[in-house]
Structure formats: structure tokens, C-alpha cells
Amino acid sequence: MITNMGPYGLIVPMWFCPVRPENLQEANQNFRTRSGENRDISTLSELALGVRYEGFTYGVIYHSVFIPRVAGTALYPTVYVLSGPMAGAKHPNANELYNWPRTTSDPNVSRVPILADQIAAGGGSKNLNNAGGGHRYNNRIVSTKLLFGDGRVEGRKESQIQWRWQGSAGWVAFY
User: How far is Cα 138 from Cα 131, in angstroms, rounded to an integer?
Assistant: First the structure.
């Protein structure tokens, strides 16, 4: 995926949030370890190697993607159950008013984000104080950035950040 995004303008620094330089430092170290090179990542192929960690079959993006996609037989994340006996009911794992957009013409494209700085807590915790990621100051999450399908980027302060999706493995995503 990473190398295929080059023709669309992706360059190495764009993969990382400038507020979290430790992610780039960690990827550079992982690249050095895996490649045997004694330098930083400079190409998309090197980036793909640097963000692929032991035990993963894909590169870590350091962001939460809120575009509904198929996992197994179900579409997630969705705010409303799309099929089966609970079709149309509010999804118990979602904390959002509108469904996440599936296309650029979706009416919710300007209401809910498609990408956010990754903020997540394990063990099913919906308490932001137990989460990692985001923009931190004095060891607290103080803000995050959200990208909307209409191209707009919006900042959210700590007081506005809420849990939004609980995955099946107990991870809870916030924005």
C-alpha cells in the first residue's frame, strides 16, 4: 500500500504526525535494524520496511482509519447495524451520531472523520486517561487532529475527545 501511494504525492514525512516525532524515530530505528543500513528512511520502500514490525503483516499507520470496510463477514466500523436481526439498530460498539462515510458523496462526509490521530486504550477502557497516542503534554492527551472526507482538518481539545469505536479485541478508539 505505501509504495502505491507515491504517484498520489505521498512522501516519507507525510506518514507521520509532526507532533509525535517518536513515531518517526522508532520507524527509523526499525528500518536500521531490519535493513542493516546505518541511516534514516528516505524512500517509500524503506518506509514500508521501517513501519512493519515483528508479528505484523502490514505497515503501522499511527492513525485510526474510520472508513467502513469488511472484516470477516461484517462491515466495520458502522454506527447502525446494516443487516441481520438487529438491522437499523444502533451498533453497541459505536459512540457516534452518524455513520462513517463510505464514499465522497456520502451525506456524512463533512460530519464524521475518515482519519484521526491514533488514540486507543486496551482492555475495553473508555477512559481517555487510560489511552495512548494523540498529542500529549505532561503525559496527558491534550488534543488530536481529524481529517474529514471533504478535505478539511479539524483539531479537538481534550475536553472534546470521546470514545468512538470498541473493537472485538477490546481496543477502544477515541477522537
Answer: 14
